[in-house]
Amino acid sequence: MGNEALLQLEGVECRYADQVITTEIHFVLREGEIACLLGPSGCGKTTLLRTLAGFAPVSQGRIQLGKSVIAAPDYQCPPEKRRIGMVFQDYALFPHLDVRTNIAFGLQKSTLNQVQIQARVDELLAVTGLQALAQRYPHELSGGQQQRVALARALAPQPQLILLDEPFSNLDVELRRHLGQEVRSILKQLNMSAILVTHDQQEAFAMADQVGVLYQQKLQQWDTPFNLYHEPANRFVATFIGQGSFIAGTLLSHESVETELGVIVGNRAYPWQAGTCVDVLLRPDDFVLAPENGVPAVIKYKQFAGSSTLYGLRLASGTCLEALFNSHAEYECGQSIGIQVRAEHLILFAQEAKCE
């Protein structure tokens, strides 16, 4: 993976008429990286993707691709000159053209001759595993096969960047997972940079090197999936990414906090004074069973998930938590079990109120 910055957004704002859709968007995508824009419905993910493609203008800031500025308030590079490929949600394949001709369509305005075009199409058929389907028409293909044709067509002109707008939303869950890994493998094989829009966190985590979480018009955090989960920048990211529960605590030192589950020590230092009231974020996998010396918790509900079971727990104080344990042992609703926190990380947010 290259270290050179390929795409840079600096203070980008997008509007529809007088309505601000996204604002103060800053991020850098490096060569060969796959990124994902993630967030709740209406947060501006697709608008930002359309702005990158050139289908919507920039009202503030600028977008730079390679060494060229492609969008600013006073300049809009046409979409066809941006060297950006787009894979649409509905694939947008031509129904009257076979797979080979669909892929070749994006090369018709290129400087390649017919021999070179066919060689490029052959290369992409091989990369995407579509050689045996080259003569078929879109209606003769499965959803996953159509998706690969759409990707191959977008890759054909050798763009610098590929944009994918919720590309797997029309597929069933298992096929989405499989195709996501397939598409990632194809992009990595070609060292192709890409930005994906999705509302599916698992899809984002499985495919992306960097994930940008959008909320209330702004980019809340641009980071690796690991850091988003273990070091969320704010409460929204903490609650939006993965599952988790907050419990109240009192800071004992920069790296430890006292809670009703005992003293929790982490590997991150916080700047607040001892005695500061905090909320501690605990993930379901931060808990372990401790029958002998654990804090008692009553099981309120459970969700079996094969290798593991998610339990909804209530402490004596009324605090509710979710804990994930392997499914070798089974516990029933209403049963009391002992739990402990076992987590190296410590995710804290200061409370506004003073501790009593």
UniProtKB/TrEMBL annotation:
One of the GO biological process terms: quaternary ammonium group transport
GO CC terms, sorted: ATP-binding cassette (ABC) transporter complex
Pfam families (UniProt xref): ABC_tran, TOBE_2
PROSITE patterns: ABC_TRANSPORTER_1, ABC_TRANSPORTER_2
GO terms, molecular function: ABC-type ferric iron transporter activity; ATP binding; ATP hydrolysis activity
Protein keywords: ATP-binding, Cell membrane, Ion transport, Iron, Iron transport, Membrane, Nucleotide-binding, Transport
Gene3D superfamilies: 2.40.50.100, P-loop containing nucleotide triphosphate hydrolases
Keyword Repressor: no
Span of domain ABC transporter: 7-241
Protein name: Iron(III) transport system ATP-binding protein
